[in-house]
Amino acid sequence: MKNVLVIGSTGQIGSELTLKLRKDYGLNVIAGYIKGAEPKGELLESGPCEEADVRDSQALGAIVDKYRIDTIYNLAAILSAVAERKPLLAWDIQMNGLLNILEVSREKGCAVFTPSSIGSFGEGTPHINTPQDTLQRPRTMYGVTKVATELLSDYYFHKYGVDTRSVRFPGLISNLTLPGGGTTDYAVEIFYSAVKGEEFVCPIAAGTFMDMMYMPDALKAAIDLMQADPSRLVHRNGFNIASMSFDPEIIYAKIRERIPSFTMRYEVDPLRQGIADSWPDKMDDSCARQEWDWAPHYTMDMMVDDMITHLRQKFAAK
Ligand code: AKB
Question: Looking at the whole model, is its pTM more than 0.90?
Answer without folding.
Answer: yes
